[in-house]
Automatic annotation (TrEMBL):
Keywords (A to Z) from UniProt: Transferase
PANTHER family given in the database record: MALEYLACETOACETATE ISOMERASE (PTHR42673)
Coiled coil: none
All copies of domain GST N-terminal, residue ranges: 1-82
Pfam family, one: GST_N_2
Protein's UniProt name: Glutathione S-transferase
GO molecular function: glutathione transferase activity; maleylacetoacetate isomerase activity
CDD domains: GST_C_6 (cd03205), GST_N_3 (cd03049)
GO biological process terms held by the UniProt record: glutathione metabolic process; L-phenylalanine catabolic process
Gene3D superfamilies: 1.20.1050.10, Glutaredoxin (3.40.30.10)
Keyword Transferase: yes
Protein's UniProt keywords contain Transferase: yes
């Protein structure tokens, strides 16, 4: 299988962490891509008309996107319900936490693009502030529930990737001081081989 991704993509990292945790990482051929919303990548566009990563191309040639779908596909390959609880409150708690983590990453990437791609004279501070307010609210919501990294599920993996992305791209944020429980959660996850092996550089 081929995975279109990048070293710094938090969504790509989520898929790689899932693959490692499920014992499927060795079956992936990683295709490192360079792209932004204003810099098209034709190889990615050919696999995903949205022009976004990650994209998984199966051995049969089927393109699967985005990270939410790829993660569940890999879970099914590994026998099912390994990282996605089967049913009930546990399942929807994991899926909701996944949505929260994905939302943090979406908002943070939006800010990153605004600051790195848009010419300074055209940057819109209220837009940046609005996106960062989403991150702040989401972190407070995540911190309101005490949780341990194990047993691992897709929600915890996604939250971990979101926190790590904030630490990587926005080191000035004080979420560790504001939410010590999230800091402890992240530190424990960071020790797992799946997170250590996929740390962005």
């Amino acid at each position: 299988m081929k995975l279109h991704t990048s070293v710094t993509s938090p969504f790509g990292r989520k898929v790689k962490v899932v693959a490692i945790e499920l014992g499927l990482f060795d079956r992936l051929e990683l295709l490192q891509e360079q792209l932004t919303p204003v810099q098209a990548n034709e190889r990615v566009n050919a696999a995903n008309p949205l022009g976004k990563i990650p994209v998984l191309v199966t051995d049969e040639g089927q393109a699967i996107y985005d990270s939410v779908v790829i993660a569940e596909y890999l879970d099914d390959m590994a026998g099912g319900h390994r990282l996605f609880p089967a049913a009930g409150a546990e399942r929807y708690a994991a899926l909701t936490l996944q949505a929260l983590g994905d939302g943090i990453m979406d908002a943070a990437i939006g800010v990153r693009y605004e600051l790195s791609l848009r010419p300074e004279q055209y940057r819109w501070q209220p837009w940046i502030d609005g996106l960062m307010a989403k991150v702040t609210r989401a972190l407070a919501t995540a911190a309101a529930v005490e949780r341990q990294p194990l047993p691992l599920d897709i929600g915890k993996i996604t939250l971990g990737c979101a926190l790590a992305f904030l630490e990587f791209r926005f080191p000035e944020l004080t979420w560790r001081q504001d939410h010590p429980s999230l800091a402890s959660f992240m530190d424990e996850l960071a020790e797992r081989p799946s997170f250590a092996k996929t740390k962005p550089a």
